[in-house]
Design a protein that fits this description.
Blueprint: E1 2-12, E2 15-24, E3 38-43, E4 50-54, H1 56-59, H2 64-71, H3 77-90, E5 99-103
Antiparallel strand pairs: 1-2, 2-3, 4-5
Protein name: protein-serine/threonine phosphatase
Keywords: Hydrolase, Protein phosphatase
EC number: 3.1.3.16
């Protein structure tokens, strides 16, 4: 069994920290899997349009530019996330597919 927790933390008025923590329930796989979080802090300014948080099921079949190009076609972030997951299925992703799209106001 696999569980995920995503934490958003506001560091300043213009900076957000997104931390993803992944834990794995199958003890037999612990030596093969990395469960350390990847943490990156980015300054968000007025040019930021969207943020895509997705699982490996999306990233294994689409590169960053393909994801951005598809997500930008939809004003509704829910519609963008649905279309991104549908595209990953269409490309025969074999991993779990989870996707959240956040649109920033201009």
């Amino acid at each position: 069994m696999e569980s995920h927790t995503v934490t958003f933390r506001r560091c300043s008025p213009s900076m957000w920290s997104v931390g993803c923590l992944q834990s794995f329930g199958d003890r037999n796989l612990k030596s093969l899997l990395r469960s350390e979080p990847d943490i990156k802090v980015e300054d968000i300014d007025h040019t930021a349009e969207l943020l895509v948080l997705a699982s490996d099921g999306l990233w294994k079949v689409m590169n960053n530019q393909e994801v951005v190009d598809l997500a930008k076609r939809y004003k509704d972030p829910y519609a963008a996330a649905r279309h991104l997951t549908a595209e990953a299925v269409k490309r025969e992703s074999k991993d779990d597919i989870s996707c959240i799209v956040v649109r920033f106001k201009a």
